[in-house]
Design a protein that fits this description.
CATH architecture of the largest domain: 3-Layer(aba) Sandwich
Number of helices: 22
Strand order of the largest sheet: 3-2-4-1-5-6-7-8
CATH class of the largest domain: Alpha Beta
Number of strands: 10
Structural class: alpha/beta
CATH superfamily of the largest domain: P-loop containing nucleotide triphosphate hydrolases
Radius of gyration: 26 Å
Amino acid sequence: MAFEGLTEKLNATFKKLRGKGRLTENDVREAMREVRLALLEADVGYKVVKDFVATVTERAIGSDVLDSLTPAQQVIKIVNEELTNLMGGAGSKLTMANNGPTVVMMVGLQGAGKTTTTAKLAGLMRRQYSKRPLLTACDVYRPAAIEQLKVVGGQLDLPVFEQGQGDPVNIAANAIRHAKDHGSDMVFLDTAGRLHVDETLMDELKRMKATVHPNEILLVVDAMTGQDAVNAASAFDEALGIDGVILTKLDGDARGGAALSIRAATGKPIKFVGTGEKLDMIEPFHPDRMASRILGMGDMLSFIEKAQATYDEKQAAKLEEKLRKNRFTLQDYYEQLQQIRGMGDLSQLAGMLPGNMGRQLQGATIDEKAMAHTEAIILSMTPLERENPQILGASRKRRIAAGCGLEVVDVNRLLKQFDMMQQLTRQMAKGRGPAMKGGMGGRMHGFGRKKRFK
């Protein structure tokens, strides 16, 4: 999980502060030394760390902090505010064109995940903002780059414009004309990368910029490369003038140094982050929310947004009515499994939940194989059997097991789990348990009790 090591060290430091009734200036300076070491170990740039610690220390040793009733909380509040400022303060959105399609030029080095990220971002724009994006294959040098863009575009049902191995600048210009003629309101240019920043690469990108006048130039960098990502961002900005950064593989970067250093080093905002391999795992970057995650305070806004993205209001109302009447069926059970799957990787959700709630979910994963078996069993039943599982005798169970390629014991195991769920819904209907309007996922699988969801 991103920032895992940094979060643990900062929490240990703040725990010491909370254990003191009053804070002295020495207490604050000692805590800031530990914060400084934690940030350096997280691969944050030395100058960035030095300036950050100096700012926090200056604010924290003020009389309004040391003389307050909860000085430790005041220090944590200051650290939270300065972390937010370090990463850019407020979230930064894409600049949209007033007339014609918005042109987004995607640049970066090879290996950062630029082509996949281009498709991910286009998919996000269509999904959340109802845009009509066009993907454009401008990387004519890397073997299979065009095919890769067509594959990920096909998976997201996005149109792809390509003209083979021609001049990338002409291809970009032709793509914009094509977008105007065919009703696309955003054009994403997947440009070529190199193994390192070189003059040839930059000259081509400069020509493209001068020809198509993009509304946004976004640099894609691999968060796991740490300070190398910061150096690449500085080099691209100096040569090309970028508008923002997309950090990929943030889920695999336990240190997080790039996320904390890029804004301070380049002055350019991080606009989006890639949080996993799946094509919907990209999200806008919110500095304030990320600061809260780093300090173990969670990010409930992002958690709620993710839940709302999979939330079906009609289905929730229908489920609530069934719970009231104690009519929770296997079909409802199946639909709730689908809702849980739509929430994504549980280990990523862990970082959004504060304190112990998040720690309980750390390392948790949805057992895809077990979930697939459960779905196969339910789908092998008739609608009557899903609504009335009590009619499932030995012969019906054998037929269901044969239909889904599993054993009768697997069918019995599912029915036992479902029976436990029905007992819970009876308690909820009688007012002995808290109802969960819109989703039964947490209780259905023992939230926090197991590391694998089945």
